[in-house]
Structure formats: C-alpha cells, structure tokens
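Forwarding the complex inputs:
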Amino acid sequence: MLFPINDGALFNSIKTGQAEGEALVSPEPISFFGGVDPETGVVIEMGHPLEGECVAGRVLVFPTGKGSTVGSYVLYRMKKQGVAPAAIINTESEPIVAVGAIISDIPMLDGMEIEQIATGDWVEIRDGTASIRRFEK
Amino acid sequence: MKLSKEEQAMLDGELGVGARRAMEIVTALGRIYGAEKLVPVTSVQVAGVSYKNLGDAGLEFLTEWADQDAHVRVQTTLNPAGMDLTRWRMLGFDETFAQRQHAVIEAFARMGVTTTCTCTPYLVGNRPRMGEHVAWAESSAVSFANSVLGARTNREGGPSALAAAITGRTAAYGLHLDQNRRATLRVDVCCPVVSQADIGALGYIVGKAAQNRVPFFEGLETLKAERSAGVKVQDRLKALGAAMAASGAVALYHVAGVTPEAVAGADVLSPDAKCLVVDDLSPGYEALTRPEIWPPPGSSGKQGENSQPPRSQEGGYPPIDLVWIGCPHASLSEIKRVVTLLAGRQVRADLWITVAQDVREQAAQRGLLAAVEASGAQVVTDTCVVVAPVRELGFRSMATSSAKGAHYGPSHAGLAVHYGTLAQCVEAAVAGQWIEKSENSNQYLTLV
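Prediction (whole assembly, two chains):
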C-alpha cells in the first residue's frame, strides 16, 4: 500500500517539467565531474554513499552539487546516453547542477530537506510540486 | 528579476536557439543568486576547454551549441587546452586526444571565441579597466581581474561564462556590487615575504583561512617598496591571487598601498572584518610539498600503483621528472629570469615553461626562446600541467614554484610535488633531482 508522505508540496523550480520515478537519496553532495560515469550513470566516486548505484531514471535527491563546472556537461552526456536521472531534487542548488539540468532538460527542484524523503519512495513532479509516496505494509 | 526588452527577446528565442539557451542559463543563475537584474559585460574568459576534463560530454555540448548558431557578443578569450596546439606531437601527446582537443577548439572558434588558450588573458589583450563588469571563469584570472585591475566579476563556471559571452550579460550579484567588494578579513603579515615561493606560501595559508572572504593585506612591505620604485609587481600579485584561489575561494583581495581599490582610498575595509596574523610561512611550504605519489580520482592510474615515494638517487634527494614554471602562465620577465638562472647550462629533467602563444612569440623575438631551448627546456603554449594528461606522458614527480600548481599537482595530474623558489626549481632541472636549500648558503635568497 502506498502512503502519501508529502502530497504536492511546492518547491523552487530550477528547471520546469514533469517527471516521476523512484527516489535515490544521498546524504552527501554529488560531483558529476569525476563522480558519475557519463556513459552508464553509475556513481563512481570512491567512498560515496551512492557508490556503485545507477542513477538512470531515478529521482535523484542530494543536498547540493560540488566539483568542477564541467560537471554540467556530464549531465548533458548522461541525458544523451539515456542514463540521466528522471529528475533532480536538491536542498540548495548551485550553478553546476542547475546549469546541467537546464541544458539537459531534466526537471529540477530545490528547497527539500534530505530527511523528508527516502530511497525507494515514489516521487511525482509537476508544476514545481513534488508528491512523495512510500510503500508500507 | 527584471529583464530588458532585448534580454526578454533573447529568452523568447527571437535571436535564435543558441542565444535562447544561453539566456536560460544566465537568468536561471540570476534567480539562484537573488539578482535583481542582469548587467552587460565587456569581456568574458571561458573555462572548460581541456578535452581531458570535458570529455566527449563537453565536446558534444559545445559542438551542438555551435551548430545552433550560438555566437559571442563580446570579446571572449579561452582557458588553457589539454595540450600545446602546435607542438603536441613533439611533446608526446596522443593522436586521438589531439583530434578531439582540436574539435573542441574548433567549436569555440565557430562561436567567435578568440582561442587564446591561456589563464592569463590580461597578458594577451583582454585587460578590462577599473570598474568594468566582466564575466570571467578561471579562479586565478578572476582574482587578477578583480584585485589587480579593479574590474568586477564573480567566479563564473565554464558553461555560465560561455552563456554570458553569447548573451553579453551576467547576473548582477556578488562582486558586481559595491557592498560586496569590501574586505572582510584583515591580514597582518608579520614575517618576511621575499621570493615568489614565499608569496605562494602566504597565499596558500591565507586562502585556506579566508575561504571566500575578501582579504586586505597589511605589512607586505617588499611589494609596497617595489611598487614605489616603479617595479611592476603584477607577477607577484598574480602568484598571490592564484594561491588564494586554489587553497580557498578568494575572488578579490586588497593590498594596502598597492592594489587600485585600496590605493583609491574609499571604504575598503569592512568594520566587522575578522583578523588573521601570519608570522610564519612554513605551514604553507609544508602543505605544498607532497613527495608521495597517488593517482588522481577517476584517472587512468591504478590504485596502489607507485604508491611509494620515489627512490632517492645517490646524494639522497628525490628524482624530479618535470620542472614546471608558469602557473599562472609565465610573463616575459619570468622567462627572462629562468634564462638567467640557467646560466647556459643543460637540464637533466624536463623543464616546461607554460605560456600564452603571444608571449612565446615575444620571447622568440627577443632571443629568449632560443636560450631556453638551448638548455633542453621547452616553452609550451596553450596548456598547463593540471589540465594536460601528463601521467600518460610518463611524468611522476614535479618541482614547481607555483603554489597553485603544487596544490593541484597530486589530485589532478597524479604527480608527486616539491615546492620551492624559482632558483631551486631551475637547480632541480639541471640536477634532475630536488635540492634542499642550504642553510649556510645565500644561494637561494635572491629575489626570484
């Protein structure tokens, strides 16, 4: 049974668009440059909480971006390769991920606290709102 | 955020797809930073040029943007590429890498960018005046533009700088505004700062402490005296800014009696500025010397390979493969100093002086290029050790007098690093190994 955790709360829209998917949540920032393989969508940063996970098609949630600004281009490549996240949610956006989402047409919101969501939650994004549902018996 | 008619038209796509995408980037960043409006810029310095960093991801994006007829509206110069664009084959760079790197440069050229491939645009014709609003990427160039020239820019990223060039605009926030240009950290320098390596060590210490505050230096007597004596202190300030931008995120600093905004008087020091006293440079020197090799993250070097410090030769000093001068890119007078220090000798290690193309040509005209090459050293253009695939060229250990270069050497180039004065670096090139300063000798206490 899917229970609503957050039914359509409004966040800041960094890149508009509609998306839905299973959440993949990181408590730590993500650097796309050097941290994610643009060909496979797998997190490759050594020691990262999401190391080895594939972000393709997931609603990727993390506090903020970090690293080199060419990380924006990595997101672009991931979209081209079909391994980009379905959407991105940050607590506080910064230019690398924001620009990456914009040029790659990946819906993106910010303003969500990491504690509000868990890996495996089902997320629907529409018109700047995010609805979160969790499967519980 | 308020947009002008022309800005809105660009955003609506009336000036083409390329311009629309650029304006989307610029306005999105404006919203993130809470800017009230955009500001026109007179020049741009673009980062994200080396194929080593861009990969096919960046090459694809830039090529498509050029295909969409994106074209720059203002003077736009470029950061270093991943190789010397002319002499790459002689220096040992790989053919496939070279093809891809050339494709990147071509995409930029199609967009109207001047492919200067240097982190010192101010030495090759991109030199904004005090008060001018610009959009520069490359942290050492940003620091120079703000602090030494008194122009106004934030630390732009690669894509945001290119977007600013295509739209001719950037968001009016941060260092574009008067109130954000005041110093928030007073630095009292209470020890001698003589050589350029001293300046780099100082910058390294201050950058770490300052993070993204605006430092105001007092006590840099050598600099003040040089400036009064009519000596151009540009090279020293270039090194200071680069160090602070590498260990921290300093984009603007002031030096009492030296930099233009400090000299103009006004209200440069904020009343709630914190204070930092620097009375010892050795923590900077220690932090910058990393004699153990480790592969950089995501590099082709395998984990654990070469994880021992290099074996010393007879004499007990570590071998040096590469001596690197020119981070940021060297000026003509820095090339002259190297020639003087070489004193006609041959080098055992590779010695690279990295410069902009124009500076190499000036060096050639003055006979300096011939003098450098006679020693076996190279004047390398368009690139730098941090963004070139130097491990693939076989280098494992480096000596440099650049704090910024020493900082990034291990993580970005997988090199072990020895940091010291220019004189020490030239001696290391001649000997093929690092030589510590002798306490009894005045040999290295010259102003180099």
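Chain B touches chain A at residues 21, 24-25, 28-29, 32, 47-48, 53-58, 60-61, 137, 157-160, 163, 297-298 (CB under 8 Å).
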